[in-house]
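Re: weekly structure request thread

Next one in the queue (775 aa):
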Amino acid sequence: MKKKLFFRSVILICLFSSSALIAQDRNIRIGEVLVIPEPLQLQMQKGDFTLSSQSRIYVDGQSPELKAIGEQLAAHFSLHAGLHLRLTNLPLTGGVPAGVSNAIFLTMAGAADSLGEEGYSLNVRPESITIKANTPQGIFYGVQSLYQLLPRDLRAGSAFAIPSVSVIDKPRFVWRGMMLDAGRYFYSVDFIKKFIDYLAMHKMNTFHWHLTEDHGWRIEIKKYPRLTEIGATREGTQRSHSREDVDRTPHSGYYSQEEIREVVAYAKQRYVTVVPEIEMPGHSLAALAAYPELSCTGGPFEMPLYWGIRQDIFCAGNEATFHFLEDVLSEVAALFPSQIIHIGGDEAPKARWKACPKCQARMKAEGLKDEHELQSYFIKRIEKFLQTKNKSIIGWDEILEGGLAPNAAVMSWRGISGGIAAARQEHDVVMSPTDFMYFDYYQGKPETEPLAIGGFVPLEKVYSYEPVPAELSPDEARFIRGVQGNVWCEFIHSPEKVEYMAYPRALALSEVAWSAASARDYPRFLQKLPGRLAALDKEGLNFRIPEPAGLEDLVTTKKKARVRLDPLVAGAEIFYTIDGTGPGAGSRKYVKPFKLSLTSGKPARLKTVVVLPSGRTSSVYTATFTRKTYRPALKIHPEEQGVSFKAEYGRLPLAKDIQLEKADTSGVLGDFGIEPLSRRPMGVVYEAYFLAAKDDIYTFSIRSDDGAVCYLNDELLIENDGEHSVTEGAGTVPLRKGYHKIRLQYFDAGGGRHLEMRVKDSSGNYPLSGKLFVN
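Done, posted below.
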């Protein structure tokens, strides 16, 4: 039986509070309780509890942790409402005392066993508020929900009403995490604390701190001072996608061991476990610049200025490497109470090992058949050492290659296959796939967004993620322990941009991680979002201001389009233009729905900005309204289902330039798949006849890595060309019932590869199965 990881936060006191709200939107019933993440059970009750200066807070006298939480609750009301509530310790082992009213009770007496370690119950009645849990951590989470029941605008010294409600709540997953990459950019201790605050506020319990990287070593190791003397500073930084574009300003910074202890203690008080990541064997150039003798070549090395994967990694054949890492990890283990240490394991090129006499000698001595097994040997040695420190390891899914260490947990990032494989081997898994959980990817149209590494992970996609793969049996699914969002920082150079990239996507993640699958509902989440974002705006969080609800590109056959917009931040205003000029606070203010006249062949562009109550303004968000005529169906009736393809192996510049005069391979596939085409680089042309079941407006989308273009009836419909990571392009067209020719051209330049086509009709769904034919 494999050893299981126990992802638990150490129980201490709560030291912070959050602004609170009841979101009010025209789609939300007045008085409806809105909490993020969505509770397991929530029922509205009759009446309200009125909080006034005469109210009291009672905490279980047997628990100093609850007393501390009660003190912070009282401090919150004092700070935000000018109400100074008296705090009283009262033994509550027999339950809430009868006859005591106008009070808030925090107690671990009488909590249901089914709540587990992190669950809570919250009952608001006209006479009292009671929060029960089996642990102070559960009480802490109940208090976070209570904060979200309070009115958004509290007047100093005035009583206010809290709606009566009954909540029973507990988390779905035990690992609810966010990763911040401090290796590429250093962030201050104060900002790290703020980052942790907002995790805890939304019931996230794991902060994965990426502390070492090719581009920076950020943790003081007393035995090896050159790690920070040399490895914490680089003389410049690539600032765009071009390696030629380098800012020559030095970037430097690291955390002293005293600062590490300070952050760990701060997180502990908020029930957040800090999991450090020390990368090995790859992503280690900062360490090798300081100690080049630990490499296969002996160096010397310079700190890199530009992004990408480096060939030089720790030498697996050198015993000094393991002595060094054991010394480093001994100091790390002493600093972090977390049972788990992340050891990286990703993106470790094997070229140096293949050419290294020491590594080859190690492979021969240990009976290892290839360099993947050598990496497995490396990771297993590290795991065995950390077990002497009572620590477990977790690594990126590459640690599966060559054989998984006996007790290692896996963080699945290259899709879900790594998580599936690990779970089937009875190893714990944290799901963190790039397509859903990489918050360094664009969250809107790239032309309106700050520079990002690529990709496209909008808010709805984060929310849609299901961490438990359908391929797993119930027994295997038990090993899916949680989910995590990642903020990689190649192009995130400031705390403000970290917040912009993380939020509001982290709010969606909090529901994926905490809420029961049956409790998740994206339309309801969007109803809750305006009030929650208004509270975060008031607190100064630099979240991305979402596009107004209803602002979407539209293709229609009608002469007029109805425009209805709603801001996704309560109290925000929308300003717009329709003449092509850039909107601002002096432009026309959106007040009510209106109709936009359309001319065939001449798209109308609606440009908007959203202005928050704080004065912060969004990017310019644009929707294009296009009137099109129906495209006639072709006069053919193919009978054989499938997609024909022709492929050529070799490097091709762009998808649109593919001209296959002589194909290296060809045939018929079931869909637009690349799985049978294993060689790379390559270019491929697919052709099929698409069956439109009825006269309707169809939206075709292509997600590809690298470029793809799509033609419908020989007219360009989608252009998603060029070398890039997984990026989506789409096109919408009215089609008559019948068959329409699709030609899809795609090229893979190497690295990642992905190709996926989807189609939606006006109802929002149109599976391609059974709709593609060859003639």
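Residues 1-31 have pLDDT under 50 and may be disordered. The chain has four domains: 41-169, 175-539, 554-627, 640-774.
Next request, please.
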